[in-house]
């Protein structure tokens, strides 16, 4: 057998760098420009986005939350998908039926949230699914689906018996076998549950019983063998199953005409593509040109292919730098653009996989601080999430990580038993195992009929926010404006209504469930009028189902004696006794300890009109001549206030002094979401009133009652008759800060196996490559830390680390 090697000298280097233009040997395949490129432009013109959810565990007990960090990835650019978009996260039972679905926001490619596992969840297997409205435009479902378990004292019974019945599949590389042409055949041996069977020996024999090839299945039941089939011969495959019985079956059909494609790695950064055919096929195709397409997500490169005279094989040795980073779909097409053979090849060259060193930084009593160092500096911000569990935990058995979710799963159409295996501590051996997986996966998930004839239509946009619709049941008086006060996180606004208009529709509004919307009609001189109207909010949540589930019960939990772990009382219930309540109210004159220079008559009383015009205290401060910046969740100083007066002695504008109930505050964070309804009176002076340090002004606020202030304030105003109030039953789910559940014990084996020590969704590795986070060790000395993450430059992280605090 003679393999014709092209581009041995300088031509090879020129090709490997993918210089401009395609290589023409004996002719040019015009279908590439006329058919393939236009089809790719239409089919992949809309960007494809992948989602990955990092769950803090894979097994939960009733009363715990599923804490998650969401990562959204632009597959074409291989960077975070930065546009803001609604992320719908649903829970489904073992039949794929929806149990609950909630709405979260993704910004700059990241999201976070939590879903409570409440008393309605029975023990058993569930699935969490994350998707966007945009994904509904495509025939390929890019939703993220991950299995998890609700662990209970009683779980549904399962039959773990390993049936000797096997599903044995023989899958020719590229799609088919051709008579007289050497080909590779992938082998997949599955049990009755659809999972690979390891260590089975197989043999290929002809009708005379001569051994032609042999193989042995790996840990996932996969193998391969090579041989030259003959159309006139009969071939049989023999495999012994687990009970020693030998199974026999025939090989796939052998075609008279065709071209066989085989791909193999010949060096660390070199792959060889071998195309082979027989004389019958060569006579039939003559000098018609073929093409090899290298494509992914609309990216396309191609090579012209012509079989030289007298040769049945032609090979190309390619530099992996010239291939697309990550997955390459290699398709052989004829001169009319019809696909002949196809093969998935993964190229690790250029993939941005980050690596961190994780170490103990400090220990102070029960507080542990962890240090993360980036081993290869990327000069870019990196965003990570980390789950901290006791060493020996049985509650983290995820089969997916961020790398396989973004680089592998979007391109294959078959089930992958343990996709994260191939991207955990990657080695040459694992790359070979990954290539074996891709041989047995066959063609990519993209259907060529759809690609040519059914490009996606843009029916659904990247929905951001919810839609607020209102219907007025009264006639808005002239010179009155309809005002909307949507509560915290969203600024108040005027709803622009034309004369006679009785409805409105506000798109892409950020509104959380439980928010009280308040509306009023604001007339001349601040006069208020309660509107009579109807409000509806559309958050885009629909009910759906997961089909074609690959169920796999976690054998661990069924083999464990769960009664020993007292999981029924794993989470301590709230034992607060509810007493009948008698409320006694008493009006008290509040004693003021004001600055001697400020008398009671200088205080301005807050009226209903004040509250309507300035619903937040920051609105009131702005109106009194100060610059106000609100930067929630961006650091320590979330609120910044400065005077607008120009100071001759200072290059920067100073900030005013703040007192709330005569208590001095060194920053303005308390003013975040501080409702004006909490205030009885105030004194604001831009000059500072001569007080020491008051060059930037003075702000004194006196509240109506005692208690917590700011965003968590407990003051409840009496319902105002001038406002229409609507409490939202749908919208975005409020994102909570992580807290450790009230476990019955944090020191026993129940906690070791199923408990949660800490969840950290917001780790930022700065440009210097360092990050820190801390947690309470709950008395434990050894931990497993599971890290997933993505950088602004598209670097992906997935690590498991052991930390000891002894």
Could you list some keywords that capture this structure?
single chain; 806 residues; mainly beta; Immunoglobulin-like; Ferric Hydroxamate Uptake Protein, Chain A, domain 1; five-stranded mixed β-sheet; five-stranded antiparallel β-sheet; 10 helices; 47 strands; disordered N terminus
What is shown here, in short?
The protein has 806 residues and is mainly beta. It is 10% helix and 36% strand. The model is unreliable at 1-26, 551-559, 575-596 and 706-718 (pLDDT under 50).
For the sheet with most strands, the description reads:
5 strands, mixed
Distance between the amino and carboxyl termini: 64 Å
Average pLDDT value?
A: 85
Give the strand content: 35-45%
Q: Domain count, please report it.
A: 3
Q: How would you describe this structure to a colleague?
A:
By secondary structure, the chain is mostly beta strands. It has three domains: 10-44 and 163-347, Immunoglobulins (Immunoglobulin-like, Sandwich); 49-158 and 350-455 and 741-804, no CATH class; 600-704, Ferric Hydroxamate Uptake Protein, Chain A, domain 1, CATH 2.170.130. The protein has ten helices and 47 strands. Strands 2-9-8-5-6 form a five-stranded mixed sheet, with no helix packed on it. Strands 30, 31, 33, 34 and 43 form a five-stranded antiparallel sheet that branches. It has a five-stranded mixed sheet with strand order 36-41-42-39-40, with no helix packed on it. The longest helix has 14 residues, at 428-441. Mean pLDDT is 85; it is low at 1-26, 551-559, 575-596 and 706-718.
